[in-house]
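Q: Convert this sequence to structure tokens.
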Amino acid sequence: DAIQIGSSNDPLLTRRPQSGGEVSPSDPSIVASGTCGSNLTWNLDSDGTLTISGTGAMANYSSYNDMPWYRKNISNVVIEEGVTSVGSYAFYSIDGFSGVSFPSTLKSIGEYAFCRTSLESAVLPEGLTILGDRAFKDCSNLTYISFPTSLKSISQSSFSGCKMLTEVTIPEGVISIEGFAFEECTNLLSVTLPVSLKTIKLYAFSNCSVLSEVIYNGRRSEWIEVNVSDWNNDPLLNAEFVYLGVAPSHTVTLNANGGVVEPSLLTVKEEEPYGEMPTPTREGYAFNGWYTAASG
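A:
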């Protein structure tokens, strides 16, 4: 039989659970609420907006059915200022919300946090330093992702299976792209990579079958210093490269060795062929070519 609760028992009905979870809200516009961290609360309103409030870190969950809003109808997610982390599995496999608002206080996103959600776009805030493995894996509706310069690594399998991504820009500051990071992004056409990049691990761009353009913010001589695993990164390595780095210029003085040459000063850039060199003249001599050193 149902428990009968009399009037004037608001302290009981609105009490927050000691170990997190769900409470009965007193606001009629809030359909569910509870805690999700030592100093964090959550509210789900009648429009389907889930709001995370408070200060500090969100709890980590070991699987999708551990999250306190499991099986709730969520259409939008707002994470307010003060929240410093999104817990592991926090929104795993939740279908129905297309966007999420992140605070500037966010420092980390846990593993599987948004894996298999219906998320369409995400702007990761400056200050974020940790992106957990598989954080956005298999987000099949994701068309846009923006990374902060504070992030140092694109984690393992973090965007694997995001089949609607067509362009990805990795900002300066990122040092590594871990294994399987963009595996099976089958509509990915273009990738922009930073000069700060040092390592691309195995299978990072595996099965990115239409990848045709890689824009590198440095020079070719800098790109060849990047440690790129040849394990199933052929789509990246076989794409057309565009190098945006400006090579340094040098002034070369031509010594005609007693003859006459015009122009006698050339401006050349490293890594770029100059073109046709001028031909000097000297009475009684035939020109056979330029030396590259003053003697020898």
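The chain has three helices and 21 strands.
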